[in-house]
Amino acid sequence: MAKIKVKLLDDVIKGLEEKKDFPGRWCKDYKPSCRDYLVNYGDTQEDCGYKCEYCEKYKWAVDRAIHYGEKLNLPWNEILASWEEDRTYWFMNYYQECEQPRIDSKDVFVFESVKEMQEKCGSEFICPSCGSITADPYECTNCHWKSYGLLKFNLAFLYCKKERKGTSCFMPKALKKEIQA
To answer: What letters, b where the CB count within 10 A reaches 16 and e where it falls short, cover 114-127?
Structure first.
């Protein structure tokens, strides 16, 4: 198991053992042997049979990494490790559809490298709030809308395979034209 993956696993186990937040997230049936199911989940898709929010979020993250791996022909554990490198806040908030959308979703674009992404996206981006064109893919110079704010809609998700990184930003004008063609 990749060392970074252990960080997510450790955070999940810590939450299960400490039971410091909402009781609805806890697993009343948790026991130390549950860790074995979680450790092996990526390879077996077997779990302990109980449902709790912590384990479900862990399985969601692993399942989404497996989805990326299958769609992009990459090792899923490298994808999960990359997400864990980037994660700076609680896993329950980090692992969700707006942060790791399905690769086959609308407005998701995959590139081999950052260079290819820059070439295909160009330097003009469409603000989803006011519709103006801006050179900044994350903040509108006209209305000051931000792609990384609380309300995320009509954004593009750009994923670079070589770097194992993705970002949500304003829709590149060049890609919008490509979609409409």
So the answer is: eeebeeebeeebbb
- Reading the block at residue 22, the tokens are 């909402």
Q: How far is CA 156 from CA 61, 99, 113, 162, in A?
A: 21, 11, 16, 19
Q: What is the pLDDT of residue 165?
A: 95
pLDDT for 104 equals 93
Nearest to 138 by CA among 161, 163, 170: 170
Stretch 47-61: mean pLDDT, rounded?
89
Token couple for 6: 């252990």
Listed residue (150, 155, 133) closest to 142, CA to CA: 133
Does residue 114 register a pLDDT over 80? yes
DSSP 48-69: -S---HHHHHHHHHHHHHHHHH
Q: How far is CA 12 from CA 1, 73, 84, 109, 163, in A?
A: 16, 27, 13, 31, 26
* CA 114 from centre of chain: 18
Please say if the pLDDT value at position 86 is more than 80.
Answer: yes
